Amino acid sequence: MRIIKFSALWCPSCLIMNSRINKIVGKYNIDIVEYDYDIDEDMVSKYNVESILPVIIFINNDGLEVKRVIGEVSLKELIKIVEGELDE
Q1: Would you give the DSSP letter of residue 6?
Q2: Each residue of 27-56: pLDDT tens digit?
Q3: Which residue in 65, 7, 1 sits closest to 27, CA to CA?
Q4: CB-hemisphere CA count at 13 Å for 52?
Q5: How far apart, in Å, do the first and last CA atoms of the chain sit?
Q6: In sequence order, which residues have a C-beta less than 8 Å from that of residue 49 and are 6 or more positions away?
Q7: Contact 6/49 with Cβ under 8 angstroms?
Q8: Proportion of the chain in helix, strand, coil states, percent, rounded to 5
Q9: In terms of DSSP H, where are the helices of 29-74?
Q10: Rounded to the nearest 5°, which phi and psi values hold at 56?
Q11: CA dist., res. 63 & res. 53, Å (int)
């Protein structure tokens, strides 16, 4: 599984989610790719990311998007998503 994360320096929710994402990345050995909303405009466009941040996209081993989270969610919710996808 891989996570693609879009965030921005000015985004308070992004700061909150960074620690939550780092916890699941370490625990589940997930690859993460991070993009800055203001700098990586080509990737923002490619993944159809809108102005509500952060956007966290879960990609399965086949390269397909399986879940997209927009804004803040709990660590518990992130774990539920990851464990649900890893079980399949």
Answers
A1: E
A2: 998 999 999 999 999 999 999 999 999 999
A3: 1
A4: 5
A5: 11
A6: 6, 37, 43, 55
A7: yes
A8: 40, 25, 35
A9: 41-46
A10: -120, 120
A11: 22
C-alpha torsion sign, points 72, 77, 79, 84: negative
**Token digits of residue 25:** 């990345």
Identity of the residue numbered 41: E
CATH of domain 2-87: 3.40.30.10
Cβ(52)–Cβ(17) below 8 Å: no
Pairing of strands 2-7, 31-36: parallel
Q: What angle do CA 20, 13, 47 make, to 5 degrees?
A: 85
Q: How far apart are CA 44 and CA 48, in angstroms?
A: 6
Q: Is the pTM of this model over 0.85?
A: yes
